[in-house]
């Protein structure tokens, strides 16, 4: 839809092959409308679409610029926009169909019906769940890496694996490594079970070695064996927000920085997760866990404010589960001051949230810590147990097209 938008700035382009003026070879074309591939096209299209949505009575979310919504009484309709791909959902199908007609009158669009495929994500609808997986993306990735017929692996990384900068011999051509690892990052959208291992191999993009490539191949072998697995979302009246956070202190042998990971749940459904390398070396495991708590709290606050804006009400404060007792105490009380006074002030906002009760931090035993799968490679039974608790499941049986069940 980029061609439907007007360019706000002066942009010139070379004459198109086959349409070059014989008398004015040095002339260039001044663009009035945006073209696909133009750097300004996404912004121009977003401006045009958002202006129209606001004119139709919709509000733009203050917390996610890709979300527009309209709430009238007990009815709500929500748009999620990614450039010119749009998901529309609402409390009544009449409202949804009416909006589609409005958009169709204003723009050239194609209605693809019920949501089944979006940005490489396959959505399977059953009476009891929505299943999100990236079967096609993973299949294409395996073919690109020439590993579609590879052996299966039960976990994405060996428990004995400890990657560093100096393992193995440098790859003669690292371009394949860059392409495959970049694609693996996109696969983590529906596969939180590979987040840890993918993040590990991402650390060596600038100088990959043969050992790092073997780790990538292990991830691909695991994806081949679980190619139809993905996130399952289930309807529930439980709207409580919970988050599990875990940290691996000083786990990087080259710089001794820590990594922290967290999983956020809305009721029984996993809705957000992250695995990041902390920017500063921590003096202790308590400090690294405390920083991880602050990062996870920021994510919870954003989710809560976004959902509240969409008129989803919460009657209990969000809960953070941490398996470090000292960090849990530190979030509620200024203890261990001598050992923590160097911590940056911006991390201490979590203590203010806990003291004023909009956030709870609770201790959970390590054996019940779901975020363990984000910070370390695990034995097969423990890994599969946590994967099931995250509701990363095999794609349910689904009948396509006009195929129907027969007695």
Features:
16 strands, RVT_2, five-stranded mixed sheet, 33% helix, Nucleotidyltransferase, domain 5, DNA/RNA_pol_sf, single chain, globular, 3 domains, five-stranded antiparallel sheet, alpha+beta, 20% strand, 12 helices, Retrovirus-related Pol polyprotein from transposon RE1, 407 residues
Task: Give a quick precis of the structure.
The chain is α+β, with helices and mostly antiparallel strands and 407 residues long.
Count of the domains: 3
Biggest β-sheet strands, sense, barrel: 5 strands, antiparallel
Q: Find the CATH topology of the largest domain.
A: Nucleotidyltransferase, domain 5
Report the β-strand fraction as a percent range.
15-25%
What is the CATH domain class of the largest domain? Answer: Alpha Beta
End-to-end gap: 47 Å
Structural class: alpha+beta
Physical arrangement of strands within the biggest beta sheet:
7-8-9-10-16
Count of runs of 4 or more consecutive helical residues: 12
How many E strands? Answer: 16
pLDDT averaged over residues: 84
Q: Which blocks of ≥5 consecutive residues have pLDDT under 50?
A: 398-407
- Please give the share of residues in helix: 25-40%
Give the CATH H-level superfamily of the largest domain. Answer: Ribonuclease H-like superfamily/Ribonuclease H
CATH architecture of the largest domain: 2-Layer Sandwich
- The coarse silhouette is globular
- What is the CA-atom radius of gyration, in angstroms? 25 Å
């Amino acid at each position: 839809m980029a061609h439907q938008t007007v360019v706000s700035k002066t942009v010139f382009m070379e004459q198109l092959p086959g349409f070059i003026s014989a008398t004015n070879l040095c002339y260039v074309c001044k663009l009035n409308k945006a073209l696909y591939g133009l750097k300004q096209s996404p912004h121009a299209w977003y401006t045009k679409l958002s202006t129209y949505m606001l004119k139709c009575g919709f509000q733009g979310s203050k917390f996610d610029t890709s979300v527009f919504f309209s709430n009238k009484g007990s009815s709500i309709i929500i748009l999620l926009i990614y450039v010119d791909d749009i998901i529309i959902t609402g409390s009544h199908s009449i409202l949804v169909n009416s909006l589609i007609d409005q958009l169709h009158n204003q723009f050239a669009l194609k209605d693809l019906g019920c949501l089944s495929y979006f940005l490489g994500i396959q959505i399977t609808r059953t009476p009891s769940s929505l299943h999100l997986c990236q079967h096609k993306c993973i299949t294409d990735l395996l073919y690109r890496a020439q590993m579609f017929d590879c052996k299966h692996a039960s976990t994405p990384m060996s428990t004995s694996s400890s990657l560093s900068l100096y393992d193995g011999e440098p790859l003669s051509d690292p371009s394949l490594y860059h392409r495959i690892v970049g694609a693996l990052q996109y696969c983590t959208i529906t596969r939180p079970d590979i987040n840890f291992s993918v993040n590990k191999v991402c650390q060596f993009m600038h100088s990959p070695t043969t050992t790092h490539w073997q780790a990538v191949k292990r991830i691909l072998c695991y994806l081949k064996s679980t190619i139809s697995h993905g996130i399952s979302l289930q309807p529930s009246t439980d709207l409580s927000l919970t988050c599990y956070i875990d940290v691996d202190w000083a786990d990087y042998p080259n710089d001794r920085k820590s990594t922290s990971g967290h999983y956020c749940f809305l009721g029984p459904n996993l809705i957000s997760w992250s695995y990041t390398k902390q920017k500063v070396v921590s003096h202790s495991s308590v400090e690294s866990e405390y920083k991880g708590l602050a990062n996870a709290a920021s994510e919870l606050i954003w989710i809560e404010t976004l959902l509240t804006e969409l008129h989803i009400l919460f009657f209990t404060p969000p809960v953070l589960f941490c398996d470090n007792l000292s960090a849990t105490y530190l979030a509620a009380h200024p203890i261990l001051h001598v050992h923590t006074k160097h911590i940056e002030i911006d991390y201490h906002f979590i203590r203010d949230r806990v003291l004023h009760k909009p956030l709870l931090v609770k201790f959970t035993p390590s054996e019940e810590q779901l975020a363990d799968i984000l910070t370390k490679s695990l034995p097969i039974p423990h890994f599969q147990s946590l994967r099931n608790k995250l509701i990363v499941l095999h794609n349910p049986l689904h009948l396509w097209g006009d195929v129907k069940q027969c007695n």
